[in-house]
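Loading example: each entry is read as two labelled lines plus one structure line.
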Amino acid sequence: EIVMTQSPATLSVSPGERTTLSCRASQSVSNNLAWYQQKPGQAPRLLIYGASSRATGIPVRISGSGSGTEFTLTISSLQSEDFAVYYCQQYNNWPWTFGQGTKVEIK
Amino acid sequence: EVQLLQSGGGLVQPGGSLRLSCAASGFTFGSYGMGWVRQAPGKGLEWVSTITGTVGRTYYADSVKGRFTISRDNSKNTLYLQMNSLRAEDTAVYYCAKEMWVPPFDSWGQGTLVTVSS
């Protein structure tokens, strides 16, 4: 099983700041990597697929990069609606696996 | 608009069974892979199972293999998860989800809580 490790566990950020979340895979997942956003009491929302392609309706301030084992999600200027938990997920090998999540909170 | 409406959660005793349903609309159901993801209280996301669109090939997490069965009825646009031999550690909110034309999941149901307790 591929282990996905996200860092940090929590990020304290001020609105308007740029922030970067990291996700590392225990072995290569090529570019088969997705990022999701989840707010309390809601279902996850797909942000990024294929490591760097934005899902429908996702604003350009959210971007993904990386391949192989190292990936990042960048939010260029944090808005109030961006404070949430973010998960990476690999879908290169069965079983699909998620990272443990990074919580982005208001500083 | 894609809609995934879940039903079937609730309280069940350890060792019991439960079937979750996910009624889909707004897309050609039979053409897309579907799956289930769960989230234990206060925890992260865990992929549970996937069924492909046309062939209906199934995949399971090791934690549920042999106990859970994913299936679909393309004539009813409905996805199912039959859960047997339930354990306390299966307690979670279960989400059904639709794949894009390929993975990953791009649309999610509202979630349904399954509680396994005596």
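The CA atoms of residues 12 and 116 of chain B lie 5 Å apart.
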